[in-house]
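Hi U.,

Before I forget, here's the chain from the pilot set. I'm dumping it here mostly so it's searchable later in email.
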Amino acid sequence: MCCESKRRFLLLYATQKGQAKAIAEEIWQQAGAHGLEADMHCISEMDKYNLETEKDPVVIVISTTGTGDPPDTARKFVKKIQDKTLPPDHFAHLQYGLLGLGDSEYMFFCNGGKTVDRRLQELGAQHFYDTGLADDCVGLELVVDPWIDGLWLALKEALQLQKEKEGMNNAVDAVSSSLSTALHAVHELNLSSEVQNLKLEDGGARGSHVLSQKLDDINLVAPARESEPSLIHSVPPVSQSALNIPALPPEYIEVQFQDAQGENPHLSSLTSEGTTFEVPVSKAIQLTREDAIKTALLLELDIADTAFEYQPGDAFCVMCPNNVSEVEELLRILGLSEKGDDFVCVKVKQGTKKKGASRPQHIPERSTLKFILTWCLEIRAIPKKAFLRALVECTSDAGEKRRLQELCSRQGASDYTRFIRDSNVCLLDLLHAFPSCKPSLSLLIEHLPRLQARSYSVSSSNLYQPGRLCFVFNVVEFPAGPSRPVSRKGVCTGWLAELVAPLLHPSKNTLDTKGESYSTEKISIFPRPNNAFHLPADPSVPFIMVGPGTGISPFIGFLQHRQKLREQHPDWEFGETWLFFGCRHQDRDYLFKQLRYFLENGTLTHLEVCFSRDSSTAEVAPPKYVQDILRLCAKEVARVLLKDRGYFYICGDKKHMADDVSDAVVDILSMEMEADKLEAMKILAMLREAKRYLQDVWS
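Structure:
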């Protein structure tokens, strides 16, 4: 129950991977220190709140997922408020503040939050506090921390104005209009004084949710001699500062070891995505030479005996485990090596101060300890500041304790970004760097997020290869560095590469290699349909595909599908198809040399390739990147997009390719239309809006 109705505000969060929820919980924890009570709910729990009748201020924290979509937990809410029959004053009574989370590496930055914000405004709701848009690309805390700091005064002023308004209404009901006017004048005077007092008080209250840690409060070990900061070492001014560190998150999980035996839950119980399919890997081919900078693999899955359906351009998710040796190392550090196969029961701790505490959905109530660490928790996750704050309490060495405090403090924000976030540091790295830190198992369950299934683009056509699903990936490599003592492979790509090692065949660079042995290994997958990244519905419409490196993956499926349609419907009219492909070296990582086969049979009408690292003796240097070849084909690209009303598809790396391709298209449109750049950008925006300029990109 809320302690006092006029000090209450409604706090809603919409999360995909847990960040928005964690920030909402931080707001909830801080609210009490400011004399406020946050009534917190997931935005999907529409039976627990009602915006149509809500009188108190509303705070919304919402993330963005996919290609600018609201998170899954917000879909029902967004659908409800987008009802076109709602009048423009539907939410005229509502006051709200919104914090959107996003990543500027992606095209539709913070679009989940912007969508909700825009629609609430259209329905008459009013801001009591400016919208904040936090960027995960540079660090959410750069916007989140000051936004939360400013929230309290804005909330108090909104609540006081609400109280003033209700006071006026009550006065009107009770006395004559003349007396009401007099009372209102007195009340205005009091309100002005009260608001001024609130501003004065807030200066003291603002810091009350943090602990001011002074140097003389702890016994520091002798300072290190390094002049450069590192993960374990700080320099002035951070090393000499009093620190503002977050409040300690309340403990809420209890883990009990059990003697009983049994079976672990099925992997399908770990996801809310609907049906999962356990399918065998029927083929594995290494597409790159051994001396290529990256190792690219093609895997073929046998889906013949399942109900799994897909279209070319769709994606699907692979459920993957954490690395076995990393799990074993974590158990060793926790002092639980002998208990990995023991069953544990995970419950909410009795008497916890955490509001609405519940066992995380991705944690089984009963399973082995090793199962939880292997399949349920993202042990490679970059630790949040709240986790670092909790780890402080598990650290016995004074110097290590101080450094962890610095890394989660306001003063150490740049160190956190540099040595943890940008260095991709995980829990194991921290435990190696701070050996006196001995967290409990329950703390890990409280702070480590769900182990996410990894998404891959389909690289085949069910029409061309019935009962088969192919996908291509690079085996991700994380080299050792100052903050990471050992090199690592990607969680999923490293696991898949190890899984299919016995299948890999010397013959490469062909989709039709025969003779590979059939694997008995199975992986669990579930579909992730793409609503837009599909072939044009009208086969006569031309299209352009841009896919360097493994970005070519979905376009192999496009071309296979198109070839089969041409065979089945010789009387149909088919539009021209362009493919722009690039890689480093023609002889090392030209992934699909059989593209020439599609060219020869007419399925592919234009193939343009480039090799960025191959040397050339030509007088005019050949183009290095796909955006360079696009510019050389400017007239044809403009014709396909403008005159022939064709489609343009991009797949691959966002940061180092997709943005450059987008810039090239703007230049092409500007040049060929003889228009300024702004006009060309408007045309590109219209193509995006019409879903004729489509991206499947990653960072």
